[in-house]
Design brief:
Length: 149
């Protein structure tokens, strides 16, 4: 948003790097991305890397996690499929003033659940993973607990 742009660009307020997890085997490529991010924040525009200079760092980080992406997508799809009916009542669209289904302040029609499901179904996995990762440390505790059941 423009407020974020103003804070990040004009007033040069940056998020604290201490909020990021420590680089480890569970966060491959994070150290390189943190370093790249700090270079991008340089006060002097000439010291900031170009998009072409950023590409090798981002590709390297991507390649380190590429094998895990299909498994992560499958985990999310499975979770959404298993929990699809559990929150239908809370997320069902409510009739708007004109009798149409609307959600949120902008008055968009339809259900976010249906859109999310359709988008996930369109994702093409290279291959179906043989197993879902046992340890999903990046998931919120509530979701992790459901996966452990």
């Amino acid at each position: 948003t423009s407020l974020e742009q103003e804070a990040g660009c004009e007033r040069q307020i940056r998020p604290p790097l201490t909020k990021l997890p420590q680089p480890s085997a569970e966060t491959p490529g994070l150290a390189g991305l943190k370093e790249l991010m700090q270079h991008c924040w340089s006060q002097e525009p000439k010291d900031r890397p170009s998009f072409q200079e950023c590409r090798p760092n981002t590709e390297e980080a991507f390649n380190l996690v590429n094998k895990e992406i299909d498994a992560a997508v499958s985990t999310v799809k499975q979770f959404l499929h298993e929990n699809q009916g559990s929150n239908r009542m809370s997320s069902s669209p409510k009739p708007g003033p004109e009798g149409t289904e609307t959600e949120g302040p902008r008055g968009t029609t339809g259900s976010h659940d249906i859109i999310a499901t359709e988008m996930l179904n369109k994702l093409n996995l290279k291959e179906f993973p043989s197993s879902v990762p046992k340890k999903c440390t990046n998931l919120p505790k509530g979701i992790r607990a459901q996966g452990d059941k």
